[in-house]
Design brief:
The protein folds into 3 domains: about 5-50; about 70-145, Immunoglobulin-like (Sandwich), CATH 2.60.40; about 150-650, Glycosyltransferase, CATH 1.50.10. A hairpin with a 2-residue loop joins strand 14 and strand 15. The strands form 5 sheets. Strands 2, 4, 5, 8, 9 and 10 form a 6-stranded mixed sheet that branches. About 55% of the residues are buried. Helix 6 packs parallel to helix 8 and helix 11 (about 430-455) packs across helix 13. The protein contains 17 helices and 17 strands. The longest helix has 24 residues, at about 430-455. About 35% of the residues lie in helices and about 10% in strands.
Length: about 650
């Protein structure tokens, strides 16, 4: 137990409690019993959860995908010391199953000098480990076609555990994770012109480490999940989740996503008013308490056009995917999408949400990319010629990069571009289709290039707040490129992104709670900190280091160890590619479309092969362009920095 760490926690808790009581730090303590209860609770949590300052696991220098390897796909691992050869051995009897030599050393961004081993030719299902003479052996791992089935279910538990407006309870690895009914007062309308009034805003998912609900990020996350369903349905439709709706007429996967969609529908101002509230939160971030303990009033925040467009996109996509299972809900989604799309068409100017009075996540962004996504989904669902003209005009107006290799909530155009590109509808402009196709391949080729240049196969060059989510999100680009080209290189790079997240990395640790080797134990996640269970809620991808080597498993370090739905959603997408049934057929572009399949043609098609365009602040939920965390790009955070961060919490636009 480190006393400076405890002092930081106690001081922060005392200040927060006194603020709630309306008192200054130096005021009388005669009425501060509740404040001291908060302090002592925080100290108790610190004693239990005091994080290790060293993130590296002690197992070995042989870093593998600790979840396992999938038959028929690439199987690579990394070693950070010198060696010449390796043996893959059967765990049952230590017999050799494969022998190989290492490639030339690579200087990784982490500072490690790494050699890479490849045993892709080994395809016999079983349980194995890698033995490197004079170095050591890896953790044991399975090889088979279903190694990601259980992790996929666990990643979906990350969403179920984040449900708002209901009680949640499920068991995982011998522990029960639960919270009570929460936030039934959502939400108040004081900031949208109706002082003292309320309107239903329940359901949805808690967004991240906090309990807020944000339209931009919620819709973006839904879009990625629904895209996984739309492209890899056969790998998802048999998924059985421990949710109340399981076994009903709607497949479990879609039933979980519907919980968020039900809330998104409530963010529209009215059935005849297409404006959409930007978020529903309290004025301040909550204390580290269970959600049912958070009873501060929460408010609908005024509309923004980015949130409005993202709602249109998510609801339009949902309307076509839920129609076979719940036609009434599908019709409701489409009706709401039409109203809000009509508002956007009639009001072409970008409107930023007025967030005065709120220090919760900003999610501020401009709307051109969101409008492109909205138009693409409306066209794909309805076949409306005006929506097609809208999306094609927006694609034609793009300058620089068309498809981005690295994208997040503040740049949603890729979702619309992907829908447009692989549509089976008639009427598209062949030249625009060719441009988008070439740009997908260019972006994927850039990802592969970054993957090949690093020691751990990571496909994202930059490190920033939440960049583990972007590592998972590369799977969307790589998936499409593989389907367009038939080149297995792209899917092999995609499976290596999962390997990175599950232990083939500088830390030799999984980045997903409850999964793989030495997973995170102390995420910045309120229920995991506040409950009485030693382990955190499972299935949550943490944001990861803001440099190649500064990640720490510390719940006070939100820029390194927070969780978020827009990071878990692409994790689910990536996993869906490699579960039984998840493989998707090639995309056949109409023969009349000009061939621009070569990634080398991308420059002529308007694409820029740059894997880091726009990556600078996208992991942060603050307003784009706002000042970032001055420590985000520095080395490993110090205990003093943690204390300073806590003291500044109430003043920051982000934790």
């Amino acid at each position: 137990m480190r006393l400076p760490y405890c002092r930081a926690v106690v001081l922060q808790s005392w200040l927060a409690a006194r603020r709630r009581a309306g008192s200054s730090v130096g005021s009388s303590v005669g009425s501060s019993v509740r404040s001291w209860v908060v302090v002592l609770s925080a100290l108790a949590a610190a004693l239990v959860l005091s994080p290790s300052r060293v993130a590296r696991a002690d197992d070995s220098d042989v870093r593998v995908n600790s979840i396992g390897y999938v038959t028929g796909h690439a199987k690579r691992f990394s070693v950070d010391v010198a060696a010449t050869s390796f043996v893959v051995r059967r765990a049952g009897d230590d017999s050799a199953a494969f022998t190989g030599d290492f490639a030339a050393p690579i200087a990784d961004a982490s500072g490690d000098i790494v050699i890479i081993g490849d045993f892709s030719a080994l395809d016999d299902p079983g349980t194995y480990y890698v033995d490197v003479p004079a170095v050591g052996r890896s953790t044991v791992f399975p090889l088979g076609d279903d190694v990601y089935a259980a992790p996929l279910e666990t990643a979906m538990l990350g969403f179920y555990g984040a449900r708002c407006g209901t009680a949640v309870s499920f068991s995982y690895q011998g522990s029960t994770f639960a919270h009570g009914v929460c936030h039934l007062g959502d939400g108040h309308l004081d900031y949208v012109g109706q002082a003292g009034a309320t309107r239903n805003g329940t359901r949805g998912w808690h967004d991240a480490g906090d309990y807020g609900k944000y339209t931009v990020n919620g819709a973006f996350s839904v879009g990625m999940l629904l895209s996984a369903w739309e492209r890899h349905r056969d790998g998802l439709d048999q998924l059985a989740l421990p949710i109340p709706e399981s076994g009903g007429p709607v497949p479990d996967f879609l039933a979980e996503v519907k919980w968020e969609l039900d809330w998104l529908l409530e963010m529209q101002y009215a059935a005849d008013d297409g404006r959409v509230s930007h978020k529903l939160t309290g004025n301040l971030f909550e204390d580290f308490v269970m959600p049912e303990i958070d009873v501060a009033p929460r408010y609908f925040v005024p509309y923004g056009t980015a949130a409005t467009a993202d709602l249109v996109a998510a609801l339009a996509q949902a309307s076509r995917l839920y129609a076979p299972y719940d036609p009434d809900f599908a019709a409701q989604c489409l009706a709401a999408a039409r109203v809000s799309y009509g508002y956007l068409v009639a009001n072409p100017a970008n409107v930023a949400a007025n967030q005065d009075g709120f220090s919760t996540g900003g999610y501020g962004t401009t709307d051109p990319d969101d409008r492109l996504w909205a138009a693409a989904e409306m066209w794909e669902t309805t076949g409306d010629a005006a929506a097609l003209a809208d999306v094609e005009a927006r694609i034609a107006a793009l300058t620089g990069t068309v498809v981005d290799a690295d994208f997040d909530w503040n740049n949603t155009k890729n979702l619309g571009l992907f829908t447009y590109l692989i549509s089976a509808r008639d009427g598209r402009d062949p030249a625009i289709v060719a441009t988008v196709r070439a740009s997908v391949l260019a972006a994927a080729t850039a990802i592969v290039g970054v993957h090949d240049a690093g020691g751990y196969g990571r496909g994202v060059m930059r490190y920033y707040w939440g960049s583990n989510g972007s590592v998972a999100r590369t799977s969307m680009v790589l998936d499409l490129a593989g389907r367009l080209s038939g080149d297995p290189t792209y899917l092999d790079a995609a499976i290596d992104q999962l390997a990175f997240l599950f232990g083939r990395n500088h830390y030799n640790r999984s980045q997903v709670t409850g999964l793989g080797l030495a997973p995170p134990l102390s995420p910045h996640h309120r229920p995991s900190v506040a409950d009485d269970v030693a382990d955190p809620f499972p299935g949550l991808l943490v944001g990861g280091g803001t440099t190649a080597s500064n990640w720490v498993d510390d719940w006070t370090m939100y820029t390194l160890n927070e969780v978020a739905i827009n990071w878990n959603a692409p994790l689910v997408y990536a996993l869906s590619l490699f579960v039984p049934g998840g493989a998707a057929p090639p995309v056949i572009i109409d023969a009349g479309v000009a061939d621009a399949s070569d990634a080398g043609d991308a420059a002529d098609a308007g694409a820029v092969i740059d894997p880091v365009v726009g990556a600078g602040s996208q992991g942060c939920r603050c307003t784009v362009g706002a000042a970032g965390d001055p420590g985000a790009a520095s080395g490993a955070p110090t205990l003093a920095a943690a204390a300073i961060a806590w003291l500044a919490m109430a003043r920051r636009r982000r934790r």
